[in-house]
Design brief:
The chain is an alpha/beta fold and about 725 residues long. It has three domains: about 280 residues, no CATH class; about 100 residues, Urease, subunit C, domain 1 (Roll); about 325 residues, TIM Barrel (Alpha-Beta Barrel), CATH 3.20.20. It contains 24 helices and 18 strands.
Length: about 725
């Protein structure tokens, strides 16, 4: 028998001995098997009436909690007890290295812990009835890597602690912050932003976030992969440290310097999964070369299709656009789109990512970070690869933008305006009543002198500024309007810092004033009257952009007819079954009843006439849906906006430009075109969108930065 086989045989025998020792110890079995199962069942019974969509995350969070508890309590208690009784000291006289013996202990724990986890999951499924197991298979690797991480931490504690009596004290010191700050038990949205960030810097926080990403209707595979890799790497580091510092003899005491260094290593390893996730994300940013063999392409500007074409993408950026199907090097990946039309990813220049498009109990209490990330993923399903947040909580949207840029969250390129500047009590301050800090969402300007102070903390964070210079639509709703001089000062100071200003308007005279004061863009085509032709010509001459948001007006109307709304392209794709059922409930459709149907139809007609006049005058029109408002769902609403722009008289070519090259220019993104130097944000469809815009509903795949993020079933 060779040395390797001898080592493996000894490892197996040592593992068997460790298993027998575990099974003989009733206290160890209680804390490893009985207690976690009892804890899981009691927790599950308490929350078993949660909505169906929340049940799988609940089950998996309970299991994750028990995993960490096993690592921090059961493993070190057992190992320290064996050391105190002299069991481990006997291993010193064996020919095996300490690493092999510790690995056998780890294997025994994984077997016992695996049985415990399996029993927990089975019982929780029977009690909570969360749904099909296939819905959460993506989360299982998170639990597996979490087991390893918990084991590594437990072995480090076992290496340091001199007595079993001290294990609970150290374990609780580490476990309680994880328990309450990770989001496993208390919703993370209840914490201030800084405390929420602190809660992510522990293994359980990483696991909880990955579990939520895995259980979402549109699972975030990158988030799960990053979590699994970071937890696995941290687990290996923990095990190596534990092997290096482990004490086998109970009489070998640690010096103060060894105590300090050991505890410092333990603390570093506790926060390492979050740091490792950042480092791994940087290495996984788009690399390598992708060749796309496209039967036809529309490049974002031309008035005809071109093809066949080979698009070469390297590092997430388009490098070449070549005629014909060019052979690819062995190191490149091929995407076959020979029967498809490839065009730039679409853009939505007006969305509210922290809103769902539905009003329901709890709509204003969900975690905004999770809502934003979910709506970004849903946008991708519809071919939307760039969006502009036109009003979301500042801290949340900044955090998510950082995650998107770092590769943690899959979603469109994100631009944001930050808090909205409005009059005291003006729109949308009414929604800020639900927020712990309304300055995250709105800044109320009483006079021009308030502008500098309210604007100061936005510089360096936001991409542009949005002012609300609207007074509502009589007689249905009205609110105070921003002072004209305050708006003028806001525009002046924003321009001084190189930021564009876009202005929300309701009335024609408000649009006129905003243009006179130098606004760069106008949000919403007025629905209360016609805008003078001279104003449209002024906007065309200055290049002032109009984002009509016709989709939101039509969304109010469509909410009256749930069947018609659900029949729209992509609506059933982006909404969960629970949300589809919610559309039929009166509470979700209450707000749309505030405006009579005839008035809604008249408002839509006026808005479309204004869009037609703006187009005829040469005003640059950019597509924006105002998604997040009633009946206006992220991703799907952009396609409604494009249809409505076409109905307003824009040719298909102009409609496509409004959602691609012109939108990208407005958002100042290197996207919206298929040309060297542009980002590899593409979508492939069946048909010719220059002839029939309906072809955009036949999305076959969506690419973001050279990676295919969605394929049609």
């Amino acid at each position: 028998m060779g040395p390797t086989r001898q080592m493996f045989a000894a490892y197996r025998k040592s593992t068997a001995i460790s298993l027998r020792l575990w099974l003989r110890d009733r206290q160890a079995l209680f804390w490893t098997l009985a207690f976690p199962i009892a804890f899981a069942l009691s927790f599950a019974l308490f929350f078993s009436r949660m909505p169906e969509t929340d049940r799988w995350p609940l089950v998996l969070r309970i299991v994750a909690l028990n995993l960490v508890a096993l690592g921090l309590f059961s493993v070190p208690t057992q190992l320290v007890t064996w050391r105190e009784r002299g069991v481990l000291r006997r291993y010193l006289v064996t020919p095996l290295p300490p690493a092999t013996l510790l690995l056998s202990e780890a294997t025994a724990f994984l077997i016992i812990g695996g049985i415990s986890i399996l029993a927990q999951i089975v019982l929780l499924i029977l009690v909570v009835r969360p749904g099909s197991v296939s819905d959460v298979t993506l989360a299982l690797p998170v639990l597996a890597s979490g087991v390893l991480m918990a084991l590594g931490l437990g072995m480090i504690i076992a290496a340091v602690v001199p007595s079993p009596k001290l294990v609970p004290a150290i374990g609780q010191t580490l476990f309680l912050p994880m328990l309450f700050l990770s989001g496993a038990t208390i919703p993370a949205e209840l914490f201030p932003p800084w405390l929420r960030t602190v809660g992510e810097y522990n293994p359980l926080g990483v696991m909880v976030r990955a579990i939520e990403a895995a259980c979402d209707q549109t699972p975030s595979v990158p988030e799960v992969v990053l979590a699994v890799l970071s937890l696995a790497v941290a687990a290996v580091l923990s095990l190596l440290v534990a092997i290096r510092i482990f004490r086998w003899d109970p009489f070998t005491a640690l010096r103060p310097s060894q105590w300090a260094s050991s505890l410092g290593l333990l603390g570093a390893l506790l926060i390492s999964p979050r740091i490792l996730r950042s480092l791994i994300a940087l290495t996984l940013l788009p690399i390598g070369t992708v060749y796309i063999h496209a039967g036809r392409i529309w490049d974002g500007e031309s008035d005809r299709l071109r093809g066949p074409v080979t698009i070469v993408i390297r590092g997430g950026t388009i490098r070449q656009v070549l005629d014909g199907f060019v052979p690819l090097p062995k190191t490149a990946r091929l995407i076959d789109a020979r029967r498809l039309t490839v065009l730039p990813g679409l853009g939505d220049a007006h969305v509210h990512l922290a809103a769902t498009g539905l009003f329901y109990p709890g709509a204003f209490t969900e975690d905004p970070d999770q809502l934003i990330e979910r709506n970004l993923r849903r946008s991708l399903l519809c071919g939307v690869t760039m969006v502009k947040s036109c009003g979301d909580p500042l801290s949340s949207i900044l955090r998510v933008r950082g995650r998107v840029r770092g590769g943690f969250v899959r979603g469109p390129a994100l631009r944001l305006v930050g808090p909205l500047f409005t009059a005291p009590g003006g729109h949308p301050a009414q929604f800020a009543a639900f927020m712990p800090d309304k300055r995250e969402f709105v800044r109320e300007l009483s006079s021009p002198s308030d502008v500098e102070e309210q604007l100061a903390d936005c510089f360096g964070k936001v991409d542009s500024i949005k002012a609300v210079y609207g007074s509502g639509i009589e007689p249905f709703f009205n609110y105070p309007r921003l002072d004209r001089e305050a708006l003028a000062e806001l525009i002046r100071q924003a321009h001084r810092h190189g930021l564009k200003v876009t202005v929300h308007v309701d009335q024609p005279e408000e649009l006129i004033t905003a243009v006179e004061l130098g606004a760069d863009g106008i949000e919403h085509a007025p629905v209360a009257g016609r805008v003078p032709e001279t104003t449209w010509k002024t906007m065309a001459r200055r290049g002032t952009v109009l984002v009509p948001t016709l989709a939101v007006y039509d969304g109010f109307r469509q909410m009256r007819n749930p069947d018609s709304l659900l029949a729209e392209p992509f609506v059933r794709v982006v909404l969960s079954e629970d949300e589809q059922r919610l559309i039929r409930q009166l509470v979700a459709r209450f707000t749309v009843s505030l405006i009579p149907p005839d008035a809604q139809s008249h408002m839509m007609e006026v808005a479309q006439n204004n869009v037609a006049a703006a187009y005829q005058a040469g005003v640059p029109i950019v597509a924006g849906s105002d998604a997040g408002n009633p009946g206006t769902f992220h991703g799907a609403a952009l396609h409604r906006e494009l249809r409505l722009l076409a109905q307003s008289g824009l040719p298909p070519l102009e409609v496509l430009k409004a959602a691609t090259s012109r939108c990208a220019a407005w958002l100042e993104l290197p996207a919206g075109r298929i040309a060297p130097g542009c980002t590899g944000d593409l979508t492939a469809v069946r048909g010719n969108p220059l002839e029939h815009l309906d072809a955009l509903a036949n999305v076959q795949w969506v690419m973001r930065l050279g990676r295919v993020e969605y394929r049609a079933p």
